[in-house]
């Protein structure tokens, strides 16, 4: 994306590598894998751009450390999430727990959280509270997802709580944290918070839609992973409301959907207009994110934030 060109990612990567340095080889290797694998770096980019949008393009002394903190929280959650989901790969590489075992993977994630706390100690106390609340939301989202599957308590409200915790809470933090750092006016802080939350919801909804309806060669993994784990994502929840609801619920409750089950659900989504309905909701959330930014002064960095949210409705993986 063109928006990335305005973000000092080389500076960010160097600082991330420095912060993750350890005397313990396994932790060092996991940290180096994290830096080398890269990823889209969407969350730290949001932090940089939000900070510059608040300041007329000027970078704050703590912008890079704040972006690193956001990435550390995200990466720690991924290390734990891969273990929870029994994932084989992450960003095209073998997951840490597959390489080193459960204990090393979990403790390396905790190491990242401890390094995050060291960085936050130099910043305003409001940021420590904000990161703590976001981390709590991530944990709650993960556990709620399992609770929903265990009780077969499928609802849109539960789904939104799950994806807020798993994804949108960190997006919200990435956008809001610079406002706390700069002691921005309340309406500007609220605007960035809304932007991050709605963008994060759109991001996860798009991921979930691609997990079911994407092309395996494009998304780089077998389709239907969520369905196989008994997770009711947005298109499946829409199916549960209709005439195919009982059939789809039985597939979900088995929590062991086979290839034929996945193909059946994909057919139902396509035949009943569910795909477009889910896409419409993704577009609506992205538009809410963009609208929230209009409370900020016009600037190239605000435009770049808008471009990130607008891109979400086109993303294919």
Could you describe the 3D structure shown?
With 317 residues, this protein is an all-alpha fold. It has a domain of 93 residues: Farnesyl Diphosphate Synthase, CATH 1.10.600.10. It is built from 16 helices and two strands. A hairpin with a 2-residue loop joins strand 1 and strand 2. The two termini are 14 Å apart. The mean pLDDT is 89.
Short description:
The protein has 317 residues and is mostly helical. It has helices at 9-19, 25-37, 42-55, 63-85, 96-100, 102-120, 125-151, 156-181, 186-213, 216-219, 225-228, 234-240, 245-254, 259-271, 274-293, 300-312; strands at residues 89-90, 93-94.
* Count of DSSP-assigned helices: 16
Tell me the CATH topology of one domain: Farnesyl Diphosphate Synthase
Helix content: over 70%
Radius of gyration equals 20 Å
SSE class: mainly alpha
So, CATH architecture of one domain?
Orthogonal Bundle
The CATH class label of one domain is Mainly Alpha
Q: Strand order of the main beta sheet, please?
A: 1-2
Largest sheet: 2 strands, antiparallel
Secondary-structure blueprint of this entry?
Elements lengths: L8 H11 L5 H13 L4 H14 L7 H23 L3 E2 L2 E2 L1 H5 L1 H19 L4 H27 L4 H26 L4 H28 L2 H4 L5 H4 L5 H7 L4 H10 L4 H13 L2 H20 L6 H13 L5
Antiparallel strand pairs: 1-2
Keywords: Magnesium, Metal-binding, Transferase
GO molecular function, one term: metal ion binding
Protein name: Polyprenyl synthetase family protein
Brief descriptors of the model:
single chain, about 325 residues, mainly alpha, Farnesyl Diphosphate Synthase, two-stranded antiparallel sheet, 16 helices, about 0% strand, globular, magnesium, Polyprenyl synthetase family protein, Polyprenyl_synt_CS, Polyprenyl_synt, metal-binding
């Amino acid at each position: 994306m063109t928006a990335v060109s305005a973000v000092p990612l080389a500076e960010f990567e160097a600082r991330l590598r420095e912060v993750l340095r350890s005397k313990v080889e396994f932790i060092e290797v996991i940290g180096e894998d994290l830096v080398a694998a890269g990823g889209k770096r969407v969350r730290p980019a949001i932090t940089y751009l939000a900070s510059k949008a608040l300041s007329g393009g000027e970078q704050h002394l703590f912008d890079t450390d704040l972006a690193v903190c956001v990435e550390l929280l995200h990466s720690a959650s991924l290390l734990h999430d891969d273990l929870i989901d029994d994932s084989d790969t992450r960003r095209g590489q073998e997951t840490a727990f597959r390489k080193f075992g459960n204990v090393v993977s979990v403790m390396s994630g905790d190491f990242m959280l401890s390094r995050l706390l060291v960085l936050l100690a130099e910043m305003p106390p409001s940021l420590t509270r904000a990161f703590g609340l976001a981390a709590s939301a991530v944990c709650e989202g993960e556990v709620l997802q399992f609770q929903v599957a265990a009780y077969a308590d499928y609802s849109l409200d539960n789904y939104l709580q799950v994806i807020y915790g798993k994804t949108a809470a960190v997006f919200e933090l990435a956008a809001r944290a610079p406002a706390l750092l700069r002691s921005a006016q309340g309406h500007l802080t609220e605007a960035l918070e809304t932007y991050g939350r709605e963008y994060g919801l759109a991001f996860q909804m798009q991921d979930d839609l691609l997990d079911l309806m994407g092309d395996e060669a494009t998304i780089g993994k077998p389709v239907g992973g969520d369905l196989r784990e008994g997770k009711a994502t947005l298109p499946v929840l829409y199916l549960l409301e209709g005439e195919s609801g009982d059939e789809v619920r039985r597939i979900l409750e088995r929590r062991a959907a086979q290839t034929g089950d996945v193909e059946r659900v994909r057919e139902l989504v396509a035949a009943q207009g569910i795909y477009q309905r889910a896409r419409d909701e993704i577009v609506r959330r992205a538009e809410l994110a963009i609208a929230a930014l209009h409370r900020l002064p016009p600037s190239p960095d605000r435009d770049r934030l808008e471009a990130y949210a607008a891109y979400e409705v086109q993303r294919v993986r």
